[in-house]
């Protein structure tokens, strides 16, 4: 699919998702708010010329600019509208027939002394049918008149956007006696004449009158709801007005979720350099592979004629194998990034809007739950939150989040609130996992720090370059990265308190608790002091990483939404490890975590708490108010789940290998979905196979999961090369990496400065 075709598809084809949501063929339609419409139409003059149906479209269009406009005034006369704040003029001119009067008005705009409208929307036919009682002579005269008008419209189309609205069908059963002669057969004849005559002299010219035929499709589905059988219901004409706004404004406003009529964005210099790098990596890998293959053939084992001994092939040097692995990884990554770009930046594949229904969310949830239970295995260890269990937890949460995103379930508040708990649970695991590692191992070395940071950020940095998106756009990775650094700093700063030291004296435990209290105080202060938070992240280069649309408000909002849950994870890890050290819990296979009585009481409280939170979340009416409470109460459901999952010994001793497999690539799945499963930066759905939604979903999902798994492997391979254990080699790599990132940030800042000027 070529990008230029999306405008034509928007004007001519589509279907309804449900009753009111219109889905254009192949692209996504943005829902313009009145301030966006004003910005797009700033200093513009728009003219609607035609009959009562065009008047309906005029009012719907004007209401996009000013929703307070009332449908008042002379129905059979001209109606002006002006928005002085944005210097927008929108006029309706009453010309119910395509005749000499309409021609004269259109001709006046082609003369040099008269200012031409920027947008002209014209159309008429039903009055001609009505006045002349549907006679063939009237149709012949219509053809003659539109033939005389066509060259004038085509001339105007060279400097203005000109749309000819084809006639909608009527619902003949509802027509009054005075309109019974307006039949769908007559309307089709008039439309056929308009299509044949308009643009007949400019078939190969760029200046064409755009035929607005999509209204016919909309009317076919909704005209039976018409009040009089002739005029469209309000929701349908609002859809037509929104289509018109998308056709004109998308190329100006460039909304993320409005892919219709948007040209392919030009490649930035950084993107060009990235593609050159990947191209050279592919060529380099092919050359090295050919050299190694030739060397292998030359050094192939053969019998020595003199001694009769077998010669062994030459062994590759470690540096050669490292270079080959590096190029091989970049070769695969380059091919994958090409697929990313083609899916979500080039206008090659179709994109469609999401449409939520309860079945589209809950049926897949049930399906994956059944699959997860089917692939149940025994765990290797039976500790609380062991590796297999946390992988399983990450896996099913990630699958639920993916279904949530593709089904558009964010519009349903109870589902949204439960998904917020899943995101919080990921951050809880971040606090639990990293605290446990540092507390038990006491390893605060640079190698560990760099390994974690590389694994978290590698894919996102590559995507920022290839997809031309800011780092903060992939908000979850910055969130996890910052919280990891907070955990590291909290435990690494003097005095370093770890389990080995704390076992010597109980006062060290109090010291660690004091550190955690200080951390909580800092979190509380920053959450209620937006100014202080923004000052911290407004310094370069932090501002470059955490700004979105020129400010760090979005970053503050994301951070604030789950501000306490990492602290809760750290505190839970501390208490659990302390209980484990004192042998106050039983983690044997099949054993309940506590004594039978305590286990039963805690299990009852956990189930009650879990259900209470779900009832509260399901009864939420206001998203803002519920988001305010979420940071403080999300831990209730998280802790309840952990206890339900771990108190019974038989439940703790098994895990789902199906969910655990997805859990091991959960980060890659979360990031990759932005561009190769969803589309338009998560706002829509990628369509590889149009017309077959189920097959398309299966195919895109299969490719998406395979790509995420491959990227996980590439990241692991590159982590061993880029972050070696040898201190001297690691220092050199860090200096190179720091120089690269600094250069990238400076180059990006310079490019943005040039773009502003």
Number of helices: 29
Unreliable residue stretches: 302-318
Structural class of the helices, strands and pairings?
alpha/beta
- End-to-end separation in angstroms reads 34 Å
How large, in whole angstroms, is the Cα Rg? 33 Å
Quote the beta fraction: 5-15%
Fraction of residues in helices?
A: 55-70%
Overall body shape: elongated
Report the major sheet.
6 strands, mixed
User: Would you count the extended β strands for me?
Assistant: 13
* Overall number of domains: 2
**Mean pLDDT over the residues:** 91
Order of neighbouring strands in the sheet with most strands: 4-5-3-6-7-8
How would you summarize the topology of this molecule?
Blueprint: H1 5-12, E1 14-17, E2 21-24, H2 34-40, E3 45-50, H3 52-65, E4 79-83, E5 88-94, H4 100-110, E6 119-123, H5 126-131, H6 136-156, E7 161-165, H7 184-197, E8 210-212, H8 214-222, H9 234-253, H10 269-298, H11 318-344, E9 350-353, H12 358-374, E10 376-378, H13 387-407, H14 413-441, H15 446-466, H16 476-492, H17 499-502, H18 507-527, H19 530-536, H20 542-546, H21 553-561, H22 565-581, H23 596-618, H24 623-646, H25 649-652, E11 654-656, H26 657-663, H27 666-676, E12 678-679, E13 684-687, H28 693-722, H29 727-756
Parallel strand pairs: 3-5, 3-6, 6-7, 7-8
Antiparallel strand pairs: 1-2, 4-5, 9-13, 10-11, 12-13
Helix pairs in contact: 2-9, 3-9, 4-6, 6-7, 8-9, 10-11, 11-28, 12-13, 13-14, 13-26, 13-27, 14-16, 14-22, 14-24, 15-16, 15-28, 23-24, 27-28
Enzyme class: transferase
Family: Belongs to the PC-esterase family. CASD1 subfamily.
Subcellular location: Golgi apparatus membrane
């Amino acid at each position: 699919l070529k990008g230029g075709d999306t405008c034509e598809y928007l004007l001519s084809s589509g279907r309804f998702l449900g009753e009111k949501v219109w889905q254009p063929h192949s692209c996504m339609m943005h829902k313009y708010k009145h301030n966006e419409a004003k910005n797009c139409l700033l200093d513009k003059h728009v003219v609607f010329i035609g009959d009562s149906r065009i008047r309906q479209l005029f009012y719907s269009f004007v209401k996009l600019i000013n929703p307070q406009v009332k449908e008042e005034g002379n129905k059979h006369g001209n109606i002006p509208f002006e928005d002085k704040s944005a210097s927008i003029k929108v006029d309706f001119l009453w010309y119910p027939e395509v005749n000499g009067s309409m021609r004269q008005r259109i001709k006046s705009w082609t003369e040099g002394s008269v200012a031409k409208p920027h947008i002209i929307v014209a159309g008429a036919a039903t009055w001609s049918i009505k006045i002349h009682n549907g006679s063939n002579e009237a149709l012949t005269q219509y053809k003659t008149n539109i033939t005389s008008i066509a060259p004038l419209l085509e001339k105007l189309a060279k400097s203005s956007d000109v749309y000819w609205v084809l006639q909608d069908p009527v619902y003949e059963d509802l027509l009054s006696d005075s309109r019974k002669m307006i039949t769908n057969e007559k309307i089709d004849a008039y439309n056929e004449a308009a299509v044949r005559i308009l643009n007949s002299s400019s078939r190969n010219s760029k200046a064409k009158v755009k035929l607005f035929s999509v209204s016919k499709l909309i009317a076919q589905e909704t005209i039976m709801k018409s009040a009089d059988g002739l005029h469209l219901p309000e929701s349908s004409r609002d859809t037509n007005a929104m289509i018109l706004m998308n056709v004109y404004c998308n190329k100006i406003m460039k909304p993320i979720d409005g892919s219709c009529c948007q040209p392919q964005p030009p490649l930035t210099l950084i993107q060009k350099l990235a593609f050159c790098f990947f191209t050279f990596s592919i060529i380099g890998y092919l050359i090295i592979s050919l050299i190694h293959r030739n060397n292998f053939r030359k050094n192939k084992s053969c019998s020595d004629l003199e001694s009769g001994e077998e010669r062994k092939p030459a062994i590759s040097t470690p540096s050669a194998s490292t270079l080959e692995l590096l190029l091989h990884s970049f070769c695969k990554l380059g091919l994958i990034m090409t697929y990313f770009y083609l899916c979500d930046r080039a206008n090659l594949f179709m994109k469609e809007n999401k449409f939520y229904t309860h079945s589209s969310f809950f049926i897949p949830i049930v399906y994956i739950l059944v699959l997860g239970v089917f692939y149940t295995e025994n765990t290797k260890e039976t500790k609380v939150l062991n590796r297999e269990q946390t992988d399983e937890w990450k896996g099913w949460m990630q699958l639920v989040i993916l279904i949530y995103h593709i089904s558009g379930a964010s519009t349903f508040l109870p589902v949204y609130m439960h998904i917020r708990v899943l995101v919080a649970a990921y951050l809880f695991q971040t606090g639990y996992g990293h605290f446990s590692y540092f507390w038990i191992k006491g390893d605060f070395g640079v190698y560990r720090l760099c390994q974690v940071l590389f694994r978290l950020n590698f894919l996102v940095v590559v995507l920022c370059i290839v997809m031309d998106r800011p780092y903060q756009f992939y908000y979850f990775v910055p969130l996890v990265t910052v919280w990891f650094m907070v955990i590291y700093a909290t435990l690494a700063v003097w005095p370093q308190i770890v389990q080995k030291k704390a076992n010597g004296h109980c006062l060290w435990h109090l010291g660690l608790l004091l550190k955690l209290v200080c951390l909580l105080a800092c979190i509380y202060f920053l959450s209620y002091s937006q100014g202080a938070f923004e000052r911290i992240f407004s310094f370069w280069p932090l501002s470059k990483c955490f700004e979105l649309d020129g400010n760090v408000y979005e970053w503050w909002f994301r951070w604030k939404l789950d501000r306490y849950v990492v602290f809760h994870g750290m505190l839970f890890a501390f208490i659990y490890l302390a209980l484990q050290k004192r042998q106050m819990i039983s983690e044997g296979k099949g054993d309940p975590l506590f004594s039978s009585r305590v286990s039963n009481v805690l299990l009852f409280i956990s189930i009650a708490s879990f259900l209470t939170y779900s009832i509260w979340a399901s009864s939420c009416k206001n998203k803002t108010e519920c988001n305010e409470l979420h940071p403080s109460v999300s831990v209730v459901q998280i802790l309840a789940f952990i206890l339900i999952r771990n108190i019974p010994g038989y439940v703790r001793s098994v895990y789902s290998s199906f969910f655990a497999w997805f859990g091991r690539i959960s980060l890659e799945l979360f990031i990759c979905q932005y561009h190769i499963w969803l589309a338009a930066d998560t706002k829509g759905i990628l369509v590889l196979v149009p017309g077959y939604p189920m097959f398309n979903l299966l195919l895109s999902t299969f490719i998406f999961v395979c790509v995420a798994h491959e990227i996980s492997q590439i990241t692991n391979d590159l982590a061993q090369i880029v972050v070696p254990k040898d201190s001297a080699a690691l220092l050199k790599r860090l200096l190179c990496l720091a120089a690269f990132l600094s250069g990238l940030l400076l180059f990006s800042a310079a490019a943005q400065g040039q773009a502003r000027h």
